[in-house]
Amino acid sequence: MVAPVKAPLSAHTRGPLPARTDELPFPLDLRRENPEALHAQLARQIREAVLSGLLPGGTPLPGTRTLARTLGVTRGVVETAYAELLADGTAQSLVGRGTRVRDETPAPTPDVPVGASDLPAWLPVMPPLPVDGPGGRPGLDFRVGVTSTATLDRRAWRQAWADAAREDVSGDYADPAGEHRLRAALAAFAGRQRGLGAQAEDVLVTGGTLHALNLIVRALVPPGSRVLMENPGYRAARQVLLDAGHEVVSVPVDVDGLIVNADTPAARLVYVTPSHQFPLGSRMCLPRRLALLEWAARHDALIVEDDYDGEFRYGAPPLPPLAALAAQTGAGGRVLYLGTLSKVLTPSVRTGFVVAAPPLLSRLVRARTLLDFGPPVQVQAALTHLLTGGHVDRHIRRSRRWHAQVRAALTESLDGLEGVAHLGGIEAGLHVCLHLHPAIPARDVAAELAAQGVHVTPLDTYTLGEAPNALLLGHGGLSAAQAGAGGRVIAGTLRSCATRARLAP
């Protein structure tokens, strides 16, 4: 037993305060150097003792003056701690009986360890998260899905946020579909950049593509529905569908996009990336697009068109979105167009949009309301300034030139690999697909490159079943010099692999 001190310790004393009292059957460890306030430490330790059964219901607590003197603290510290315990129901104060542990405090269950935090037995095991973590791997990272902000007009960017900050702040909730000005600006943007005819009333502002897909599969698709998905395909989108409880059926793709024929099964919804198939990089040809629209009409299905990087094309004329073709053929109500500003500006703005027919959009707005009541108003205001001021269009033109140079440097550095590897998906987007000879396993090449500080992604991580032997090279976050340097390392490694495999590049 530690003898009580006779006077409170100085506020400048370091280390633990006296460890226990005669009245409490457990040690108290109060430390002045702890960032947690002394009264909070005292209340927490008494609360833990009650929950563990060391202080049963009805146990009297020491008087505030006695405990303060014993611990070497001011009486106010103990009074504040007791007030916290009274407020949360741990203790009760009775006239003539002082402060004591609440009588009805339940005793711990003997079979359950004190402090156990076991999860419910019915909680399902979560699969690994199918997204890459934040960057930061040393060396050159050909990471897929990122973009460069090197061409961003910093002055226009800062001005947009300054203008947004000067706007009046409302005390009311905003429109869960998004501010009308931004919806109108996004509709006009989709018309200029992608030839999609839309009005503000057709647009829902979202937190990005995955957020939009979550809204769609929960608000529009009955539980347990069959959904078709490209294979290889966007793995995070696949997981969204699975987590929503839907049956995901993989449909193969080729150089003309999703294969649609008489064997394509019926489903409630299909998710496609027709402008730049992710991850192979092909684009869906017109006959396939018409076949997909006919399939949707025949099976009474919806089509989700993810146009994640349709603004970036190099040397090939852009095909209009599937949604525009659907509108021309009278099937516009079946296609939900997903656009995003993540590749156009930066993923950090967390803003995308859905263009859909009013009956579908109203259901999505309802789901958005119940989820989070809409996007942040200040972010919308800044993006509206950038869109309406022409800054986004100018940024896209600069970015196209930048990424075209990066792509050219990468493809030039990978030249001369005939018979060993060839590039696919180079007409558009911010990544390419490097197809390898069957004798050179993609995973082995990726491991060998990582040892040299060059990071690439094997295609099989995006594929169910047998995957093409290929590597994904994301060049969106690199400069031309970096892409060229990394490409030369990749080419050298592949030539070494070809020599070991007795191939002649």
Automatic annotation (TrEMBL):
Molecular function as annotated in GO: DNA binding; DNA-binding transcription factor activity; pyridoxal phosphate binding; transaminase activity
Domain HTH gntR-type: 36-104
Top-level division of the source organism's lineage: Bacteria
Matches recorded under CDD domains: AAT_like (cd00609), WHTH_GntR (cd07377)
Ranges where the record places region Disordered: 1-20
Transcription keyword on record: yes
InterPro entries xref list: Aminotransferase_I/II_large, HTH_trans_reg/aminotransferase, PyrdxlP-dep_Trfase, PyrdxlP-dep_Trfase_major, Tscrpt_reg_HTH_GntR, WH-like_DNA-bd_sf, WH_DNA-bd_sf
Keywords associated with the record: Aminotransferase, DNA-binding, Pyridoxal phosphate, Transcription, Transcription regulation, Transferase
Pfam families: Aminotran_1_2, GntR
Matches recorded under PANTHER family: HTH-TYPE TRANSCRIPTIONAL REGULATORY PROTEIN GABR
Family the UniProt entry places it in: In the C-terminal section; belongs to the class-I pyridoxal-phosphate-dependent aminotransferase family.
Name the record gives this protein: GntR family transcriptional regulator/MocR family aminotransferase
Record organism: Deinococcus soli (ex Cha et al. 2016)
Lineage, opening ranks: Bacteria, Thermotogati, Deinococcota, Deinococci, Deinococcales
